[in-house]
């Protein structure tokens, strides 16, 4: 039997790692020592004019593996495989796609699980706070190394959308299109509150040891699992959860038992938490939620988003989903309105989807069509 | 391009900033963008129409006109256009008022229910007119607020708007001498350019 990948898959991909010789000055005032690394993947071919490159920015728990498979045994493709591949909306027959793991991540790029060259020990809690701006700077350096002066588009969902917006603000000349999906110009107090609950779940785990759990040979799995459970609830809509689980029971009847799983939804959340805590780093989760909380580009202009966007030159495309309550359509519209006030090119669609915030990862015909149509109009 | 859009484009100055309400496929904006260096945005609600707009390379924003234009600043557009849509919104008076606030000038086209054929149909058959031009029956029509020229002009007075230009045309968008003589009776479409007196 020959094993093969679906026709519209980018197939087998091999992550690559690039090291940088210059230290990176961070917004928090600290510096990331020279030699830091970024792990990334590419799909498609960079054309001789180098004008067909698209940068994919990942969300909170994402990484560089956006499409394709790492091995023939891989059960699941990359996190955005629904949208990246030959003849898919982000068509790798046309575009050269770059996806990376952000600094502070735990999937190859320098982060809390890496060795600090100055101490020879794992960074752990000592890894500096990284912001969306820092990521954009580090991504620009990666672009330089790959010979990409200007992206045809920078695309991202959720926290990835924030990076795309920051790109347009920080490097107006270096991208032609900015596509931000299910995103927001800054977090609301409610968003920050959810992040804080997630962080408290992690830091109060007895196995956390102030972030230096590696030295203690432990993993704060319980706290990280809890954090993920809270996050997961906010990524789905009430309807989506209702349809998936309702009030279905794990066993036939109620057991009047506080500690064990009774409802299917409990079982699902516990599984999600357990699975996540086995593959993700607790310090990275703290860093990424902080980066979300800190993102507020308009703060440099007294909250005036239109003024903040006055220098952008990219064409913007924003997409939101009707049942997304974490980053609701109203949040995307704030960006749209500011762009119109700043006299910029912007298009916006609101996709009718029951899946909540997670809709941006899911195959939805209207969303696929709208993204395909827009990307086809990008001249290369 | 649709004949009414052909007429409208002549009323829109070069390099102006245009907001097109219910922009459909985006033909007008695509033309203005290409030939008149106009910076524009289309508001549209139908997903298929939006897709056409995206194909045309214009700025299209998904927005329901029934929710108003509160997100647009006062006098922030040179021209606000609305073709063949006012009869389909919930509160035409409120929307018109909003258009006059947002735009320095407004261009509106609508079907004239005072046309002799409509009058004849209603008076002889006693039923709501259905024609090639207005092909819907009363229960499935998107058009919920038909008006005549006289009705529309009464509304503009009430809103303290000034009519800068008016063109009464037939369904082929010809401005015949009969339509000039008896616009409310002889023309099927009204094309108005308004501005606020405020």
Automatic annotation (TrEMBL), chain A:
Gene Ontology molecular function terms on file: homoserine O-acetyltransferase activity; homoserine O-succinyltransferase activity
Catalytic function, reaction form: L-homoserine + succinyl-CoA = O-succinyl-L-homoserine + CoA
Entry's Gene Ontology cellular component terms: cytoplasm
Pfam families cross-referenced by the UniProt entry: Abhydrolase_1
Predominant localisation class: cytoplasm
Binding site for substrate: 228, 358
Catalytic residues (positions): 158 (nucleophile), 324, 357
Gene Ontology terms describing biological process: homoserine metabolic process; methionine biosynthetic process
Residues annotated as site: Important for acyl-CoA specificity: 326
AB hydrolase-1 domain location: 52-361
Pathway in which this enzyme or protein is active: Amino-acid biosynthesis; L-methionine biosynthesis via de novo pathway; O-succinyl-L-homoserine from L-homoserine: step 1/1
Subcellular location: Cytoplasm
EC number annotated for this UniProt entry: 2.3.1.46
UniProt keyword terms in alphabetical order: Acyltransferase, Amino-acid biosynthesis, Cytoplasm, Methionine biosynthesis, Transferase
InterPro entries named among the record's database cross-references: AB_hydrolase_1, AB_hydrolase_fold, HAT_MetX-like
Top-level EC class as recorded in UniProt: transferase
Assembly behavior: Homodimer.
Xref: PANTHER family: HOMOSERINE O-ACETYLTRANSFERASE (PTHR32268)
Family per record: Belongs to the AB hydrolase superfamily. MetX family.
Summary of the function given for this chain in its UniProt record: Transfers a succinyl group from succinyl-CoA to L-homoserine, forming succinyl-L-homoserine.
Name this protein carries in UniProt: Homoserine O-succinyltransferase
Origin species: Entomomonas moraniae
From TrEMBL, chain B:
Gene Ontology MF annotations: methyltransferase activity
Pfam family, one: MetW
NCBIfam families from the UniProt entry: metW
The protein's name: Methionine biosynthesis protein MetW
Higher taxonomy: Bacteria, Pseudomonadati, Pseudomonadota, Gammaproteobacteria, Pseudomonadales
């Amino acid at each position: 039997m020959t094993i093969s990948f679906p026709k519209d898959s980018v197939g087998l991909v091999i992550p690559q790692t690039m090291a940088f010789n210059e230290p990176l000055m961070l917004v928090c005032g600290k510096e990331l020592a020279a030699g830091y690394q970024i792990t990334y993947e590419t799909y498609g071919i960079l054309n001789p004019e180098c004008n067909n490159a698209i940068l994919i920015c990942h969300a909170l728990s994402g990484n560089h593996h956006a499409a394709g498979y790492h091995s023939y045994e891989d059960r699941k493709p990359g996190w955005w495989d629904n949208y990246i591949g030959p003849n898919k909306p982000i068509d790798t027959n046309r575009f050269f796609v770059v996806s990376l793991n952000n600094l502070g991540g735990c999937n190859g790029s320098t982060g809390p699980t890496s060795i600090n060259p100055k101490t020879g020990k794992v960074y752990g809690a000592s890894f500096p706070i990284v912001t969306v701006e820092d990521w954009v700077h580090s991504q620009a350096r990666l672009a330089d190394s790959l010979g990409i002066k200007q992206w045809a588009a920078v695309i991202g969902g959720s926290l990835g959308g924030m990076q795309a917006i920051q790109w347009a603000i920080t490097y107006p000349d270096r991208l032609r299109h900015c596509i931000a999906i299910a995103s927001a110009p800054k977090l609301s107090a409610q968003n920050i509150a959810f992040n804080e609950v997630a962080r408290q779940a992690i830091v109060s785990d007895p196995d956390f040891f102030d972030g230096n759990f590696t030295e203690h040979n432990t993993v704060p799995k319980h706290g990280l699992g809890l954090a993920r459970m809270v996050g997961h609830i906010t990524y789905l809509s009430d309807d989506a959860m209702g349809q998936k689980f309702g009030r279905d029971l794990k066993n036939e009847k109620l057991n009047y038992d506080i500690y064990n799983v009774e409802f299917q939804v409990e079982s699902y959340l516990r599984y999600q938490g357990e699975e996540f805590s086995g593959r993700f780093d607790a310090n990275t989760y703290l860093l990424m939620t902080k980066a979300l909380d800190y993102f507020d580009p308009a703060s440099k202009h007294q909250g005036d988003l239109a003024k903040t966007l006055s220098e952008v030159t990219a064409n913007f495309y924003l997409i939101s989903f009707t049942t997304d309550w974490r980053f609701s359509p109203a949040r995307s519209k704030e960006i749209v309105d500011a762009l119109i006030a700043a006299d910029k090119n912007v298009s916006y669609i609101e996709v009718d989807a029951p899946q909540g915030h997670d809709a941006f990862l899911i195959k939805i015909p209207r969303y696929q069509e709208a993204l395909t149509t827009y990307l086809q109009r990008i001249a290369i | 391009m649709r004949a009414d859009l052909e007429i409208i484009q002549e009323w829109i100055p070069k390099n102006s900033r245009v907001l097109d309400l219910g922009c459909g496929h985006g033909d007008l904006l695509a033309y203005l963008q290409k030939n008149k260096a106009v910076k524009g945005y289309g508001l549209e609600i139908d997903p298929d129409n939006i897709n056409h707009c995206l194909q045309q390379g214009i700025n299209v924003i998904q927005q329901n006109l029934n929710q108003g234009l509160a997100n647009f600043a006062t006098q922030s557009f040179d021209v606000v256009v609305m073709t063949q849509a006012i009869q389909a919104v919930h509160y035409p008076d409120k929307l018109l008022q909003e258009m006059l606030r947002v735009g320095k000038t407004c261009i509106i086209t609508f079907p004239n229910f005072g046309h002799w054929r409509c009058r004849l149909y209603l008076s002889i058959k006693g039923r709501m007119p259905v024609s090639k031009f207005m092909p819907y029956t009363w229960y499935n029509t998107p058009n919920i607020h038909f008006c005549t020229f006289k009705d529309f002009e009464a509304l503009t007075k009430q809103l303290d708007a000034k009519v800068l230009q008016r063109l009464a045309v037939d369904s082929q968008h010809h401005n015949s001498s009969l339509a000039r003589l008896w616009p409310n009776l002889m023309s099927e479409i009204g094309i108005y350019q308004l501005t606020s007196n405020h």
